[in-house]
Amino acid sequence: MKKLRGAPPQETVSRRRARPKWDGVCDAIGRDIVAGKLPPGGLLPTEADLARTLGVSRPSLREGLRALAAKGLVETRTRRGTIVRAKQCWDILDPDVLAWMADAPPDQEFLMALLELRTSIEPVAARLAAQRASPRQVLDIEESYRAMAAALPHDLEACCQHDLDLHERIIAAAGNVFLARFAAVIRTALRASFLVSYNARESYENSLAEHWAVTDAIRKRLPAEADRAMRLLLKGTARDLAPAFPHIKPKQARPAAEEPGIRKPRATKPKVRKPDDRRPAGDAIGRGKVG
pLDDT value at position 175? Predict the structure, then answer.
Protein backbone atom coordinates (compact mmCIF):
# COMPACT_ATOMS: atom_id res chain seq x y z
CA MET A 1 0.00 0.00 0.00
CA LYS A 2 1.22 3.46 -0.84
CA LYS A 3 1.95 5.80 2.02
CA LEU A 4 -0.84 8.21 2.87
CA ARG A 5 -0.13 11.91 2.96
CA GLY A 6 -0.11 13.64 6.30
CA ALA A 7 -2.80 16.01 7.53
CA PRO A 8 -2.60 19.68 6.41
CA PRO A 9 0.10 21.78 8.11
CA GLN A 10 -0.84 23.77 11.20
CA GLU A 11 -0.69 27.16 9.48
CA THR A 12 -3.26 25.98 6.94
CA VAL A 13 -5.51 24.82 9.75
CA SER A 14 -5.23 28.22 11.46
CA ARG A 15 -6.15 30.10 8.30
CA ARG A 16 -9.24 27.95 7.96
CA ARG A 17 -10.38 28.88 11.47
CA ALA A 18 -9.47 25.75 13.38
CA ARG A 19 -10.44 23.20 10.77
CA PRO A 20 -11.38 19.97 12.63
CA LYS A 21 -8.67 17.33 12.56
CA TRP A 22 -11.13 14.70 11.36
CA ASP A 23 -11.77 16.89 8.31
CA GLY A 24 -8.08 16.68 7.44
CA VAL A 25 -8.25 12.90 7.81
CA CYS A 26 -11.25 12.78 5.48
CA ASP A 27 -9.49 15.00 2.93
CA ALA A 28 -6.16 13.12 2.96
CA ILE A 29 -7.65 9.63 2.62
CA GLY A 30 -10.43 10.75 0.26
CA ARG A 31 -7.98 12.30 -2.19
CA ASP A 32 -5.84 9.16 -2.24
CA ILE A 33 -8.89 6.97 -2.88
CA VAL A 34 -10.18 9.15 -5.72
CA ALA A 35 -6.70 9.41 -7.27
CA GLY A 36 -6.48 5.60 -7.34
CA LYS A 37 -3.65 5.36 -4.80
CA LEU A 38 -5.93 3.23 -2.63
CA PRO A 39 -7.64 0.77 -5.00
CA PRO A 40 -11.23 -0.51 -4.63
CA GLY A 41 -11.47 -3.58 -2.43
CA GLY A 42 -8.21 -2.77 -0.65
CA LEU A 43 -7.91 -2.57 3.11
CA LEU A 44 -6.84 0.63 4.86
CA PRO A 45 -4.03 0.31 7.41
CA THR A 46 -4.96 -0.30 11.03
CA GLU A 47 -6.24 2.56 13.15
CA ALA A 48 -2.93 2.75 15.00
CA ASP A 49 -0.94 3.03 11.76
CA LEU A 50 -3.33 5.56 10.21
CA ALA A 51 -3.40 7.72 13.34
CA ARG A 52 0.39 7.74 13.49
CA THR A 53 0.80 8.50 9.75
CA LEU A 54 -1.73 11.33 9.78
CA GLY A 55 -0.68 12.69 13.15
CA VAL A 56 -4.15 12.59 14.72
CA SER A 57 -5.84 10.91 17.66
CA ARG A 58 -7.92 7.78 17.20
CA PRO A 59 -11.22 9.59 17.91
CA SER A 60 -10.39 12.13 15.16
CA LEU A 61 -9.42 9.30 12.83
CA ARG A 62 -12.70 7.46 13.45
CA GLU A 63 -14.69 10.63 12.84
CA GLY A 64 -12.89 11.13 9.53
CA LEU A 65 -13.56 7.54 8.50
CA ARG A 66 -17.23 7.95 9.37
CA ALA A 67 -17.36 11.00 7.09
CA LEU A 68 -15.77 9.00 4.26
CA ALA A 69 -18.26 6.17 4.84
CA ALA A 70 -21.12 8.66 4.55
CA LYS A 71 -19.70 9.73 1.18
CA GLY A 72 -19.61 6.11 0.04
CA LEU A 73 -15.81 5.86 -0.26
CA VAL A 74 -15.14 3.31 2.49
CA GLU A 75 -16.97 0.63 4.42
CA THR A 76 -16.09 -0.80 7.81
CA ARG A 77 -16.58 -4.53 8.19
CA THR A 78 -16.39 -6.53 11.41
CA ARG A 79 -13.15 -8.51 11.76
CA ARG A 80 -11.90 -7.23 8.41
CA GLY A 81 -11.30 -3.53 8.86
CA THR A 82 -12.03 -0.56 6.61
CA ILE A 83 -12.37 -1.37 2.91
CA VAL A 84 -12.19 1.01 -0.05
CA ARG A 85 -15.40 0.92 -2.09
CA ALA A 86 -15.79 0.99 -5.88
CA LYS A 87 -16.48 4.26 -7.70
CA GLN A 88 -20.08 3.20 -8.36
CA CYS A 89 -20.73 3.46 -4.61
CA TRP A 90 -19.41 7.02 -4.22
CA ASP A 91 -21.73 9.96 -3.63
CA ILE A 92 -20.67 11.68 -6.84
CA LEU A 93 -22.68 14.83 -6.08
CA ASP A 94 -20.96 15.37 -2.74
CA PRO A 95 -18.96 18.64 -2.99
CA ASP A 96 -15.82 17.07 -1.48
CA VAL A 97 -15.92 14.06 -3.79
CA LEU A 98 -16.40 16.32 -6.79
CA ALA A 99 -13.46 18.49 -5.73
CA TRP A 100 -11.21 15.46 -5.25
CA MET A 101 -12.19 14.08 -8.65
CA ALA A 102 -11.45 17.41 -10.30
CA ASP A 103 -7.98 17.54 -8.70
CA ALA A 104 -7.15 13.92 -9.56
CA PRO A 105 -5.28 12.97 -12.78
CA PRO A 106 -7.43 13.61 -15.91
CA ASP A 107 -10.14 10.98 -16.35
CA GLN A 108 -11.78 10.92 -19.77
CA GLU A 109 -14.82 8.99 -18.57
CA PHE A 110 -15.36 11.43 -15.69
CA LEU A 111 -15.04 14.54 -17.88
CA MET A 112 -17.33 13.20 -20.59
CA ALA A 113 -19.93 12.19 -18.00
CA LEU A 114 -19.82 15.71 -16.55
CA LEU A 115 -20.22 17.21 -20.01
CA GLU A 116 -23.22 14.98 -20.71
CA LEU A 117 -24.80 16.11 -17.45
CA ARG A 118 -24.10 19.76 -18.24
CA THR A 119 -25.74 19.31 -21.66
CA SER A 120 -28.84 18.03 -19.90
CA ILE A 121 -28.95 20.79 -17.28
CA GLU A 122 -27.47 24.06 -18.49
CA PRO A 123 -29.58 24.71 -21.62
CA VAL A 124 -32.70 24.31 -19.45
CA ALA A 125 -31.20 26.62 -16.83
CA ALA A 126 -30.42 29.25 -19.48
CA ARG A 127 -33.96 29.02 -20.85
CA LEU A 128 -35.47 29.46 -17.39
CA ALA A 129 -33.06 32.28 -16.54
CA ALA A 130 -34.25 34.17 -19.63
CA GLN A 131 -37.80 33.84 -18.30
CA ARG A 132 -37.30 34.31 -14.56
CA ALA A 133 -34.11 36.26 -13.83
CA SER A 134 -34.62 39.45 -11.87
CA PRO A 135 -33.11 42.68 -13.26
CA ARG A 136 -30.36 42.38 -10.62
CA GLN A 137 -29.56 38.81 -11.65
CA VAL A 138 -29.39 39.80 -15.31
CA LEU A 139 -26.90 42.54 -14.43
CA ASP A 140 -24.85 40.09 -12.37
CA ILE A 141 -24.67 37.61 -15.28
CA GLU A 142 -23.60 40.37 -17.64
CA GLU A 143 -21.04 41.59 -15.10
CA SER A 144 -19.50 38.11 -14.92
CA TYR A 145 -19.21 37.98 -18.70
CA ARG A 146 -17.55 41.40 -18.92
CA ALA A 147 -15.11 40.55 -16.13
CA MET A 148 -14.29 37.28 -17.89
CA ALA A 149 -13.58 39.12 -21.15
CA ALA A 150 -11.53 41.81 -19.40
CA ALA A 151 -9.28 39.19 -17.77
CA LEU A 152 -8.08 37.93 -21.14
CA PRO A 153 -5.45 37.42 -22.35
CA HIS A 154 -3.21 37.92 -19.32
CA ASP A 155 -5.07 36.55 -16.28
CA LEU A 156 -6.39 33.06 -17.02
CA GLU A 157 -7.08 32.27 -13.37
CA ALA A 158 -9.36 35.29 -13.06
CA CYS A 159 -11.00 34.44 -16.38
CA CYS A 160 -11.75 30.92 -15.13
CA GLN A 161 -13.18 32.28 -11.87
CA HIS A 162 -15.48 34.72 -13.68
CA ASP A 163 -16.54 31.89 -16.01
CA LEU A 164 -17.50 29.83 -12.95
CA ASP A 165 -19.44 32.78 -11.56
CA LEU A 166 -21.31 33.29 -14.82
CA HIS A 167 -22.52 29.69 -15.00
CA GLU A 168 -23.45 29.59 -11.32
CA ARG A 169 -25.39 32.84 -11.66
CA ILE A 170 -27.32 31.42 -14.60
CA ILE A 171 -28.20 28.35 -12.51
CA ALA A 172 -29.31 30.60 -9.64
CA ALA A 173 -31.36 32.82 -11.97
CA ALA A 174 -33.26 29.75 -13.21
CA GLY A 175 -35.10 29.81 -9.88
CA ASN A 176 -35.29 26.02 -9.53
CA VAL A 177 -34.14 24.47 -6.24
CA PHE A 178 -33.31 21.14 -7.90
CA LEU A 179 -31.19 22.74 -10.60
CA ALA A 180 -29.39 24.71 -7.89
CA ARG A 181 -28.23 21.38 -6.45
CA PHE A 182 -26.03 20.92 -9.50
CA ALA A 183 -24.11 24.19 -9.14
CA ALA A 184 -21.19 22.32 -7.54
CA VAL A 185 -21.19 19.86 -10.45
CA ILE A 186 -20.91 22.69 -12.97
CA ARG A 187 -18.10 24.28 -10.98
CA THR A 188 -16.20 20.98 -10.88
CA ALA A 189 -16.69 20.40 -14.61
CA LEU A 190 -15.36 23.85 -15.48
CA ARG A 191 -12.35 23.52 -13.17
CA ALA A 192 -11.50 20.10 -14.57
CA SER A 193 -11.85 21.32 -18.16
CA PHE A 194 -9.57 24.26 -17.38
CA LEU A 195 -6.91 21.92 -15.95
CA VAL A 196 -6.81 19.53 -18.92
CA SER A 197 -7.04 22.14 -21.68
CA TYR A 198 -3.79 22.32 -23.62
CA ASN A 199 -4.44 25.92 -24.57
CA ALA A 200 -6.85 27.48 -22.09
CA ARG A 201 -6.19 30.99 -23.36
CA GLU A 202 -7.16 30.10 -26.92
CA SER A 203 -10.17 28.12 -25.69
CA TYR A 204 -11.49 31.10 -23.73
CA GLU A 205 -10.83 33.55 -26.54
CA ASN A 206 -12.69 31.29 -28.97
CA SER A 207 -15.63 30.87 -26.60
CA LEU A 208 -16.15 34.54 -25.67
CA ALA A 209 -18.67 35.00 -28.47
CA GLU A 210 -20.50 31.85 -27.34
CA HIS A 211 -20.63 33.10 -23.74
CA TRP A 212 -21.92 36.46 -24.89
CA ALA A 213 -24.63 34.81 -27.01
CA VAL A 214 -25.97 33.10 -23.87
CA THR A 215 -25.71 36.29 -21.81
CA ASP A 216 -27.35 38.42 -24.48
CA ALA A 217 -30.26 35.99 -24.95
CA ILE A 218 -30.94 36.04 -21.20
CA ARG A 219 -30.65 39.84 -21.17
CA LYS A 220 -33.15 40.13 -24.04
CA ARG A 221 -35.57 37.61 -22.47
CA LEU A 222 -35.29 35.11 -25.34
CA PRO A 223 -35.68 31.63 -23.75
CA ALA A 224 -35.36 29.55 -26.93
CA GLU A 225 -32.31 31.51 -28.06
CA ALA A 226 -30.70 31.14 -24.61
CA ASP A 227 -31.23 27.38 -24.77
CA ARG A 228 -29.73 27.17 -28.26
CA ALA A 229 -26.77 29.41 -27.38
CA MET A 230 -25.91 27.30 -24.34
CA ARG A 231 -25.95 24.12 -26.42
CA LEU A 232 -23.52 25.72 -28.88
CA LEU A 233 -21.29 26.79 -26.00
CA LEU A 234 -21.18 23.23 -24.65
CA LYS A 235 -20.35 21.88 -28.10
CA GLY A 236 -17.39 24.23 -28.04
CA THR A 237 -16.37 22.81 -24.66
CA ALA A 238 -16.38 19.30 -26.13
CA ARG A 239 -14.25 20.60 -29.00
CA ASP A 240 -11.69 22.06 -26.59
CA LEU A 241 -11.51 18.85 -24.53
CA ALA A 242 -10.88 16.62 -27.56
CA PRO A 243 -7.08 17.24 -27.77
CA ALA A 244 -6.66 16.02 -24.17
CA PHE A 245 -7.85 12.54 -25.20
CA PRO A 246 -6.62 12.01 -28.79
CA HIS A 247 -6.93 8.22 -28.50
CA ILE A 248 -10.69 8.46 -27.93
CA LYS A 249 -12.83 8.58 -31.05
CA PRO A 250 -16.32 10.05 -30.77
CA LYS A 251 -19.14 7.56 -31.09
CA GLN A 252 -21.08 7.84 -34.31
CA ALA A 253 -24.64 6.68 -34.66
CA ARG A 254 -25.31 4.07 -37.32
CA PRO A 255 -27.55 5.05 -40.22
CA ALA A 256 -31.19 4.17 -39.62
CA ALA A 257 -31.11 1.58 -42.39
CA GLU A 258 -28.48 -0.40 -40.46
CA GLU A 259 -30.43 -0.55 -37.21
CA PRO A 260 -31.72 -4.02 -36.28
CA GLY A 261 -35.14 -4.73 -37.66
CA ILE A 262 -35.06 -1.89 -40.20
CA ARG A 263 -34.79 -2.89 -43.83
CA LYS A 264 -32.66 -0.89 -46.18
CA PRO A 265 -34.80 0.62 -48.96
CA ARG A 266 -34.47 -1.27 -52.24
CA ALA A 267 -32.98 0.79 -55.05
CA THR A 268 -35.42 1.25 -57.94
CA LYS A 269 -34.84 2.49 -61.44
CA PRO A 270 -36.64 5.66 -62.46
CA LYS A 271 -39.66 5.00 -64.65
CA VAL A 272 -39.32 6.30 -68.19
CA ARG A 273 -42.54 7.16 -69.98
CA LYS A 274 -43.09 6.03 -73.50
CA PRO A 275 -43.87 8.69 -76.08
CA ASP A 276 -47.50 7.60 -76.35
CA ASP A 277 -47.94 7.91 -72.52
CA ARG A 278 -47.41 11.67 -72.50
CA ARG A 279 -50.36 13.87 -71.64
CA PRO A 280 -50.84 17.55 -72.34
CA ALA A 281 -49.78 19.84 -69.50
CA GLY A 282 -53.31 21.23 -69.31
CA ASP A 283 -54.65 17.77 -68.47
CA ALA A 284 -52.50 17.56 -65.30
CA ILE A 285 -53.51 21.04 -64.22
CA GLY A 286 -57.12 20.26 -64.85
CA ARG A 287 -56.86 17.37 -62.42
CA GLY A 288 -55.72 19.74 -59.64
CA LYS A 289 -52.00 18.77 -59.70
CA VAL A 290 -49.27 21.33 -59.20
CA GLY A 291 -45.93 20.92 -60.91
Answer: 96
